[in-house]
Every structure is written in C-alpha cells, then in structure tokens.
Amino acid sequence: MNHKKSSGVINSFVVYIIFGIISFFVLYPLVYVVSSAFSPGNSIASVSIMPFGDGFTAKHFVHLFTETQYGKWFMNTLIIAVCTSLSTIMIASLGAYVFSRFRFVFKKSMLMSLLILQIFPSFVGMVAIYVILLRIGGLDTLWGLVLVYVAGNIPYNTWLVKNYMDTVSRSLDEAARIDGAGHFRIYSTIIMPVARPIITFLGITSFTAPWMDYIFPKMVLRSVEKQTLALGLFSFVTDKKNDFTTFAAGSLIVAIPFIAFFIITQKAMITSFGGAAVKE
Amino acid sequence: MASIMPADGSAQKKITITASLFMGLAHIVHLKDYAKGVFFALTEVLFLAFSPFIVHKLVELVTLGSPQPDLPIKQRGNSIFMLIDGILLLAVIAIFIVTYVLSVRSAQSSYAEYCRKKSFRSFKESANGVFGSAFPVLGLAPSFLMILIFVLVPLLFSASVAFTNYSAPSNIPPNNTVDWVGFENFTTLLGGETSWSAGFARVASWTLIWAFAATITCYFGGLLVAVLLKESKIRFAPAFRIIFILPYAVPAVVSMLVWKNLLNGTFGTVNRTLMALGLIDEVIPWLGHPALAQFTVVMVNLWAGFGYFMLLTMGTMTAVSQDLFEAARIDGANKFQVLRRITLPLVLYQTMPLIIMSFTHNINNFGAIFFLTGGNPTVADSTTTSAGGTDILVTWIYKLTITLLKYNYASVIAVMIFIVLAPFAIFNFSRTKAYKEGEV
C-alpha cells in the first residue's frame, strides 16, 4: 500500500494545517464551556474571552446541587431514559420477531405503514397526545412521557430490528422447534442473543434521545421537580436571565458521560456504520 | 342443520353467505370449528352491544357539538374530545371490518381444506389453530395499541384539524366549539391572505434550502475529513479522529445553546474576541440579521453534524472490498484515480439511503433551529405569522401551536410536510433488500 512513502494523495503538511484549523473550530466552544463552568462570573458577558482567564471556582457546581433541582432533573431524565430504552427493546423486538418469522394477512401493508408513520415527527400530533394523556391521567407524570417516547420509537425500530432478524438463518429456529421449544423460547433464547448488535444499537439510541428532547417534556411535565435536564438547562439561559456559567457547569456533567461513551465505542461505531450501509 | 357438507366445493357460495350474515356463523353451523366460531361471534356480539354508544360518538364527530353559551364552561361539550373519540372509534370500526373480512375468508379456507381432506377439523385442531396464532397476535398487540393511540390517532387528529377552525381567539374549547371548514385553511395559507401565504412560501422554501444545505455541507465535510484521515497517513490520525467526533457526542441542546451564547451579537464571546483582536470595529449580528443568521445556522450545524458522516463514510470505505483496489492498482491506476473512480462513487452509492434519511431528518430538525436562534430574527411578516427569518416548518408548527394557538394552520403545515416527505420514505423502502426480493 505505502510503497512510495511521500506519494500519499495529499501532502501531510497541508493536512496538518487543515486539521489544525478544524480542530480549533471544533474545540473552541467546548473549551469555552469547560472554562465557563469554573469561571467566577455569571452571565456570558462577564466571562473572559480568554478561556480560564478569570480564575477558578467550583461554586457553580455547588450551586447546581444545593440551590437548583439539578439532581432531581438528572434522576428524572435517567429514569425516563432507562424505562424508554427497556420498553422500546421489549416491544419493538417482539413485534420485529413476529414480522420476521410469521406469515399473516396484511403483513406487507402493516410494514409499509410503519415506514410511513415514522416520517412524521411525533410532535405533529402534540395536541392530540396532550388530550389523550389528560384523559388517562398521564400529564405531569414520568410514565406519561415514557409512553409517548416508546410509541414514537416503535415504528422505525421494529422495522430496523425486523430487517436484521431477516438475515438470521431460519435453520436455528427450526432446530429449536424440533427440540420442542415454543415461540417465546425461540425468541428469547435464540433470536435475541443473535440480534444483540442491533438490540444494543436500539438500546443506545432510545436511551440517549430523551436527554436531548425538549418539546414533549415541556408539554407533559409541568411541576419543577418533575422536569428533565433539557428543560432545566434551557431555563438557565432564557431571554430573561443569562446564567451561562451555571448552565455550562450543568452541561458539563451531562456531556462528559456522553463524550466518554462515544470515544470508547468509536471503533465499533465505524464498523457498524460501515456494515449497516453495505448491507442496506 | 346441514351436518353433511358436500366436499366437492359446491357449498362454497352457501358458506360465504352464512359467514357474511354473522361473524363465526359458518364456522359453528357448517364447519364444526367451534373455538374459532365462538371467538368471532363474541366479537360481533360485543360490537353490536356497544353500537348505540358508537353511533352517538360518530354523530358527535360529524357535528363537533353545538355552542352551549347558557351552560357553565365546565359542562359544555368539548369539540376536541369529540374529535379524538370519533377518530379512535373510526379506528375501532376499521379493525372490526377487517376482522369481519378475515372471518369470512377463514370460513372459505376451512371449507377448501374440508374439501381436500374430506373431514372437519377436530376440536383439538381448531383450538390449536387459535392457540398457535396467539403468539403473533400477542406479540404485535403492544406495538399495535401503542401506535394506534399515540401515533396514528394523533396524526389523524392533526390531519383532521387542518379542516377545522380550531384556533385562537374564537374557537378554543371548552369555551367555544370548533367546526369543520373544508379547505379554507389550505386556501388561506396557499394564496388567500397575503401575509400568511407569503410567510408560508418563505418558510417552506427556507426549509428546503436549509435541509439541502445542512445535509450537503455535513456530508461533504465528513467525507473530506474521512478521506484525509484515511489517505494522508499522518501520524496523529486517531487523536484527530477523537477530536472530530466530539461535537457529535455532545447533546444538541447543550451545543446549540452554547453557540447561541457565543454568537450573541452584543455580549457574545466571538464578537468580543474579534474586537479585542482588532479584526472588527462593530459587532457582527451573527444571529440578528436574517441572511447572516441563515448562514450561521448552516455553519453551526456543520460543526455539529460532520462527525456523523465522517464515521459513516469511514466505515463504508473500510467495508469496500480490497480486491477492487488491488485490481485497479494492477491496471496501473494511481491513488488519486482509485479514490475518484472507485472509492468515492462506491461510498456515495452505499450511503445514498442515509443521505436521504439525513435530508428528511433535517427538514424536521427542530433542535438545530429552536435552540440556536429560536427562529429569530424577526422579518416583515413575523408579527402576523410569528415565523422568524430562520424558522423552518417544524419550529413554525411549534410556535403556531404554543404561542399563537393556531392549531388549524399548524395542522395544514404538518399535512404538507407529510406530502413532501412520504415519497422519500417510500423510495428508501423500495431500495431495501427485503422489498426487492419480494419477501416482506
């Protein structure tokens, strides 16, 4: 491959310059968030333009946990994310298994409808969802929000998992059926373990989404102690008040686990992305 | 009772007629398939028992209630509840009709089986049949119910509201009723009232430009970085790769709000830095001037989104078969030719469905606009339409719903988005392997 060392397509000096410029733009806001989180000031106007230019304090972190509901918001979001993720996995994979392994009437039209339903951003039906939650007592509750998320996740993810299960050889199920295993046994002990890559992907995407959503929590969760991180963080930097340093401290606590996770799994992600694209 | 059925197929018509008269009748009377027959019959009995209630709800769906100004607000009928209940019932009726059709078909196929085997199914076989289909039915039931209640009914509701006058100030239940108005909202938005139709045309075209620009910049930005990382063989490639993934890893609500503050016109860090460096004398209204704000959101989106396409194209490049490169090299192609003629076309082909998905995602990319600019700055028609210079259709829907309470217009826009996006989804679907092989 590299028989002529210097004959790379692009001169590496130029590449270093390009990468240096990109890295600067990529890191600039991130470094600024870190420095603001430890800066003594409050609003963005009071923070020095030089990162870490005005001293170092941890008071915003203390403030977050003592004077705001940050800990509560964090727990709420965590509960919502875990419940959404687990329920999505269970419901979508069971549906996908049925779609993948059974023949029944209207199967093709049902699959087609799943695909069409996922085009719509779910908040288009916001008003109706609000009224439905109101009538079943799901407003201002975490489970109401979980229901909305899981329902929104099902169409696309059922489709995704079904496509994956289709690639799993049927001889596995048949062997198990001869041994007397029922449908549920085959689903839970044979198909699910084989489908672990796509299930993991599903679990991760449905776990991360609730951390960033704003619209549904805003609509469903009314009381302050029931809110999620996205709402809480947003409330620090509204038009009326600018508590940028507190916001930065709060953001840092959420962003660090995410970043760590992405860095650890980046190799696996490259492979799975490649595989997904090639396999169609 | 016709206990002896002719097994030569001559009773086909009789079976069809009996099965159509009452669900499950043919199963019980002619086919001795009691388990199935009782199940079907109970379904119909249940449906008939509720029919007065169903008719009442359907009438309400048509009328959406009449004004009751003399009643206290709490006791007035709520048109919106009527609309949702009516739609839910329509769905139930549709399910009932489908079950009815299935019961007739099931009777016909049982009869065909009888003609072949010359004997009825035993009770055990019949029960096994019902029990065997229990797994797929139970397996799909949770998905089906959740989708029905939280996806399908809301969408149908939204689509219906597009044909009503559900809007502030004079048609908000429970104070007032809502009425069907036909295509009035469509005509208003598509050419009736100048400010609304001009606003709609402006926001719709910006949405398309935005989705196109956002997808193209992120795709080629990511592809460029991926090619550089892969082809240039520089020493710190893994370190750079980690840096480039960072924006993708940060939750959008965080990164967009950070950029919003950094780019703030008066006290934002970017302007203060540029002034301190002596590069500018006056602040640059990054997010304050319509055209500049549009440019800025595309750039910030590039910042947030190129990492995803970098990962994607790197993965695809790695997955391209090495034989192809080998063959090209033997034929005397240099590296640049290999890149241009083999790698890039292949990557483009493989990632096409994901590019289309990304385009449709950007059309609905609420977070990128809402957190960064909130749809601002205001433009000429903003006072009437509430849509600012960077608002895309979905953020406008949000504003119409939350701020202006113009549910009717919001729904019209939602319907439009659906009409524009559905072909893309169907195109992607038709490319999948399962569809091509006709085995869906």
From TrEMBL, chain A:
The chain crosses the membrane at residues 12-34, 73-99, 111-136, 142-161, 194-212, 244-264. InterPro entries: BP-dep_ABC_trans_perm (IPR050901), MetI-like (IPR000515), MetI-like_sf (IPR035906). It is a multi-pass membrane protein. GO terms for molecular function: ABC-type maltose transporter activity. GO terms for biological process: maltodextrin transmembrane transport. The keyword Hydrolase does not apply. It is found in: Cell membrane. Gene3D superfamilies: MetI-like. It comes from the Bacteria. Keywords: Cell membrane, Membrane, Transmembrane, Transmembrane helix, Transport. Residues 74-265 form the ABC transmembrane type-1 domain. GO terms for cellular component: plasma membrane. Its main location: membrane. Belongs to the binding-protein-dependent transport system permease family. This is Sugar ABC transporter permease. It comes from Teretinema zuelzerae.
UniProtKB/TrEMBL annotation, chain B:
The keyword GTP-binding does not apply. It is found in: Cell membrane. The keyword Manganese does not apply. Pfam families: BPD_transp_1. Residues 204-428 form the ABC transmembrane type-1 domain. Its main location: membrane. Keywords: Cell membrane, Membrane, Sugar transport, Transmembrane, Transmembrane helix, Transport. The chain crosses the membrane at residues 15-31, 38-59, 79-102, 130-157, 203-227, 239-259, 342-363, 407-427. GO terms for cellular component: maltose transport complex. Part of the ABC transporter complex MalEFGK involved in maltose/maltodextrin import. Probably responsible for the translocation of the substrate across the membrane. Belongs to the binding-protein-dependent transport system permease family. MalFG subfamily. This is Maltose/maltodextrin transport system permease protein. It comes from Teretinema zuelzerae. The lineage of its organism: Bacteria, Pseudomonadati, Spirochaetota, Spirochaetia, Spirochaetales.
